[in-house]
Amino acid sequence: MAPLIALPSWTVWAIVLAVFAAAAVAFWPLVGVSVLAASVGVVLFPLQRRLAARIGPVIAAVLLTVVVGAALIGAAVFTIGVLVQNLDFITEMVRAIFSVAAEPIANPFSATLPLDPAEVTEAIRTELGAFSTFLSSLIDELPMVGLETIVFFLVLYLTLEQGEAAGVRLGEVLPAHVRRPVERLWQMAVDVMYSIFVVHFATAFVTFLIALPFFWFLGYGHVLFFAVLSGVFQLVPFLGQTVILAVIGGYALAIGDLRGALLVLFIGYPFVAALPDWIMRPLLMGVKAKLHPVVMFIGFFGGITLLGLAGLILGPLLLALAVGAYGIIVEELELRRQEEETTRLAEREAGTEGRAPEG
To answer: At what angle do helices 200-218 and 223-233 cross, to 10 degrees?
Structure first.
């Protein structure tokens, strides 16, 4: 039998990268949901570690997967239930806004208005028709949605059960000079993912609590509906509840409630929208992830625009890794400079000691 011959290192890397690329292309429609599930699993690693020490890694992973699934399904059912119970009120709001928007504006400046209310109304109706078509098309997407749901929970379970052990094993075989920057990048990635999930849901819950007294004071009723809607839309960074408040402000103007419109403008937007979105979220994420809030803004906007739902995670994560890579390069260059200075100083001292004393 001929002896085994080790492949060149570049050949091994080429084969590995080719396999990863083929898998990514084949399963591309499921990459987004897989990234989302793996990110949730990474955030749950500390809890998985504690539970695994008591009940074993397999049972702990199953338990956490079931708890996450129950929480997500419960939140979805509760939200959908609240929305369904208030469909009549939503229809009334839309009808009131449409009826006012369709009327000609009777004021001396109407000739200079850049928009025709009738055209605006028609555009809104067109968008609503497109949205209705989108909702109808979701019925055809149910098999794919079911598959994505199954893949999400399978990837979550697998990440919880074996993800951390696989990461530790990889870290042990890395060369010493590579392990340190890799560990730093990994820690930064974990901090960013923690910030994305924990801070997102924390700000959504805070928004829900702030919205309850505001909408009660506003006096339109349906307080739980508005609060739940604000909390859910808070998960869409920087745009969510602003849209809700804009619709409510338009409804207040449509029914002639100047008090309600002023409350939405001067109390609702600053406290229900601006405070959680522009202050609380960036500060909390910046503290945990140690990133400038502007970087997080760019990550969210750019990620969602370019990568869709997965960009909500990948956008800030990739920018965080880029910032971390820059920091690692600067540190490595600084360490190399210090080593060179230390070497030169040692050589100078050795040359001075080896020189024979004069006289």
So the answer is: 150
- Are the beta carbons of 311 and 39 closer than 8 angstroms? no
- 3-class state of residue 200 by DSSP: helix
Rounded to whole angstroms, the Cα distance separating 104 from 107 reads 9
Angle formed at CA 88 by CA 86 and CA 94, multiple of 5 degrees: 105
pLDDT above 60 (res 334): yes
Structure tokens at 52: 């695994």
Which backbone phi and psi does 107 adopt, to 5 degrees? -155, 160
163 or 2: which leads in pLDDT:
163
pLDDT per position as a tens digit, 212-237: 899 998 888 888 888 888 887 777 66
Distance of CA 67 to the CA centre of its chain: 21
> Could you tell me if 307 and 314 are in contact, meaning their C-beta atoms sit under 8 angstroms apart?
yes
Q: What's the sign of the alpha-carbon dihedral 100, 106, 109, 110?
A: positive
Which among 131, 220, 166 is positioned nearest to 57, based on CA atoms? 166
pTM above 0.85, yes or no: no
> For residue 277, which of 336, 328, 330, 211 has the smallest C-alpha distance?
211
Cα within 13 Å of Cα(98), Cβ side:
13
